[in-house]
Amino acid sequence: MSEFAFPPGLIMILGAFLIPFVSDARRSLLVMSLPILTLALVWLLPDGSNLQIGFLDYSLDPVRSSTEGRLFATIFSIMAFAGGLYALKQARTIELTAAFVYAGAAVGVTFAGDLITLFIFWEIMALGSTLVIWAAGTHSAYRASMRYLLVHLLGGVILMSGIVAYVIETGSTQFVAMTADSTATWLILAGFLVNAGAPPLSAWIADAYPEASPSGTVFLSAFTTKTAVFALLVGFPGTEILIWIGLYMVFYGIIYALLENDMRRILAYSIVNQVGFMVTAIGIGTEMALNGAAAHAFAHIIYKALLLMSAGSVLMMTGKRKCTDLGGLFQSMPLTAFHGIVGALAISAFPFTSGFVTKSLETSAAAHEGLALVWMLLLAASAGVFLHAGIKFPWFVFFQKDSGLRPPEPPVNLRMAMWIFSFLCIAIGIYPDPLYAILPYAVDYQPYTIDHLVTQLQLLLFAGFAFFVMLKMMKRTLTISLDFDWFYRKFFKELTEEFSIHASVAQKSMERRMKNRVESIISNLYRHHGPTGILSRVLSTGSMVMWVAILLCLYLLSYYF
Amino acid sequence: MTLATHYPILQVVIPLLAAPACVLLKNPRACWLLTMLVMLVSLGIAGQLVWQTSESGVISYAIGGWAAPWGIEYRVDALSSYVLLIITTIGALVLPFAARSVADEINIKMQYLFYAAFLLCYTGMLGITITGDAFNLFVFLEISSLSSYALVSLGKDRRALSAAFQYLIMGTLGATFYLIGIGLLYMMTGTLNMADLAERLPAVNESRTVLTALAFLTVGISLKLALFPLHSWLPNAYTYAPSAVSALLAGTATKVAAYVLLRVLFTIFGVDFVLGTMPVAEILIILGMAAILIGSMVAIFQENLKRLLAYSSIAQIGYIVVGISLGTVTGLTAGLVHLFNHAIIKSALFMAIGCIIYRLNSVLIGDIAGLGKRMPWTMAAFVAGGVSLIGVPLTAGFISKWYLVLAALDKGYWPIVVVVLAGSLMAVVYIWRIVETAYFKPYNGPASISEAPLTMLIPTWLLIMVNFYVGIDSSLTAGIASKAAAQLLGVSP
């Protein structure tokens, strides 16, 4: 027991409900102080279980302090602080409230010592994040939030049945490392993976996140997938199947991000890709790999939020979200462009950024374990990350052709939030020791070796080279000179049209078939269950009595024989 | 301590005597005041009985001093005190709500009759729960049924009359089946006292007469319980009844029927016979699962809010029956916990609908568009109740769901787990339809609509609070329920 034995997550959850009731001036103070209070409590709590509460027939352990939990809770609090600052003036009250409930629940998960506490915060997180998406207030956001909620409720029931089965099997509710060898643990693993964006349900991330408001997406990018990484890290380290699931996610993210045109969807696919790296590392399961996953999660939250803040600023100031509509914005939004580039360099693991000192832990872990294939795939994927997030996003949004848009820089609170995260990206990159010090295991790793620097720079250079080679061709298709290029333009146009016609015909017919199928199922259900259906029609008294007679006969028969 | 020893009889007699008093008083306000007083006293007595049984075990009260097998015995154990608590809690919270709602929905000349019938119905349900005599149970069953037919017929809509009539026929059929069953048992054993019946039955339970009795009893009670496919009377009765009646009946009537089922199956016939020799559990589990799936599915397509909740009740009865039929302590605990939780959830939801009817005069889903802004507290209560019905953690519904899944997995019945969780996802859909309409559609009703009066909102919110309270601290419900379950199954807790 400790005098601070209070679940740190509850500070933000309870505080969130004050947000609608305070005046504007006090609101800033409240929003800024809640994450700081949480952070303070996170570090004041001594290691181990701090509180026991009885619930149902079990003893809950809602304040278990561990190194992993503290690490994730720290970054979640920092994220809530910067996100709160970013959202402070522009976001709707309901969004800010929901976002803080959401962030608090995520912190709650990191301090959950038992599966029931974990599940409770898990569900609160699902509700909070759904509300964050909703708060965007558009029709498409509403539709997306419903799909999002359904996926998470499904994940929730899977997780719950897993937990119940686990409790029956082992008699314990402790949240400790498990091995996926029984139905119960498989279900728990599946429940975690749904939130991580693992196949076959990877699509919810790119479907829902870009529909939220500019600040909403920033919040969303940080918590759900990373709590899943935390849960996997504590619950299933070294589970081999995670390596392959993670690799799938890595390449799924890259391929879809390269094909995508919406800037925030590019970044959303990139979340799947980055979480894939972490999941792979957890699957490898050595101390170094787990350190890598944790450190990468820490760094990733910062630079992904930074990228989305930059994209969000662009969206807010221009109202446009498609790469083809944007371009040349560096002229009037140099600061936003600068922050976007810092984030892009960090995600590409450019030396002297946070990505460089964290992601290499994971790739090295693969190399150390002699997993040559995994190592090569991860390395190739790193190049892919540079392509889709490192260059594609800043290039098309801030440079490329001039779209003619001259929006001003975003408001001051947005800029401040971006400065904080840009600073962190570079600070961690230059001086990683404080981060290494709070990792779950002791770190014996020196990122700045000649060898590492050279390899990484080579990788980035070649990836960059590849991008600009392709870009040259693409640039030509976009110029207006009419001689030689006409061939390319015509050619590419025909090609893409040809492709898009076929693709869209195929897609249309598939969609139509799906829609018909769903409609026929629903109309079938409606025929039987709808207001005039046989199952809900008002029966005449006679037929009710007939049912009584039938049932009596049924019972008599079954009792007699 | 002389008064305390008479609590079992006072529990029944006080409301019974208050009913004719209401008829004499005639003034609606005075009637309401008297009824309210009775409700509070009854709640107090039920609380005392819960405490007494948890302190000193089973209380046996001989009426008129006639000893048990000959005289009528009132018998309060953990289970009956628990159900008494449910009935009195719902009664005490529905009645404050009823004052405005009844004044609005029922002709002023009939209002004193409403209170009299309300008290009689309440008496009947308490009597069913407290008696230890199988025939006396039938008498109370008739008291509560006849008065509830009258209550349903008081609804504003003229269709209330035909609904009440149908309810009457089906209810009478159920009661008659029960009576036939009891008669057959009496024929074989010569006794009507439940404990005595339980002692004598094993000697004759191979006979066709006893088997026939069991069949009549199960069907009769299933009819009262509205267990699928004998549920068809319930939607109409709930839909056309006055709001306060729907709230009371949804919270208590089917719960009492579930109590009778438990008594007959476990106390009279005994666990070993019913679950071991007879295929009762198998049939009930299948019917319960069908009730969950079909009830929820039908609820999704309803346009009338009260009817939607009525079908949802049919599904929830399925949960209770499945839990009971598992026949383990955990299963019974799940069923009993849900008995309480569903009572408070559904009553709260019906009360919220009552608030809507009070202002809007309509229960069609299309008419509540945009109501979230006009009646924020009412709709918030509805959402909170709905969240609990779905079974989100920290609400009462979650506790039920947890125990039920636990009990099903304990026996390795995965299909039940799937059905239960599918049911909760379907609840998301039908609750969601209402939330969507109320919050995301533009308001197009009359401009005069405002929030419901406080006398209706406060009781509704009190029930919602109870909902969250038992969702967080489940020791009250789950504690008594697991004790009652252990007592019923004859294992030491």
UniProtKB/TrEMBL annotation, chain A:
GO-annotated molecular function: oxidoreductase activity
Residue ranges crossing the lipid bilayer per the database entry: 6-22, 29-46, 71-88, 95-113, 119-137, 149-168, 184-206, 218-235, 241-259, 266-285, 297-317, 329-352, 372-391, 412-432, 452-471, 534-557
Record keywords, A-Z: Cell membrane, Membrane, Oxidoreductase, Transmembrane, Transmembrane helix
Subcellular location field: Cell membrane; Membrane
Topology versus the membrane: Multi-pass membrane protein
Domain NADH:quinone oxidoreductase/Mrp antiporter transmembrane: 112-377
Protein name (database record): Na(+)/H(+) antiporter subunit D
UniProt gene name: mrpD2
UniProtKB/TrEMBL annotation, chain B:
Protein's UniProt name: Formate hydrogenlyase subunit 3/Multisubunit Na+/H+ antiporter, MnhD subunit
One annotated Gene Ontology cellular component of this protein: plasma membrane
Species classification: Bacteria, Pseudomonadati, Pseudomonadota, Gammaproteobacteria, sulfur-oxidizing symbionts
Membrane topology: Multi-pass membrane protein
Principal location class: membrane
Domain NADH:quinone oxidoreductase/Mrp antiporter transmembrane residue range list: 133-425
Transmembrane domains' residue ranges: 6-25, 32-51, 79-100, 112-131, 167-189, 209-227, 248-271, 283-301, 308-327, 339-358, 379-400, 412-432, 452-472
Entry keyword annotation includes Cell membrane: yes
Compartments in which it is found: Cell membrane; Membrane
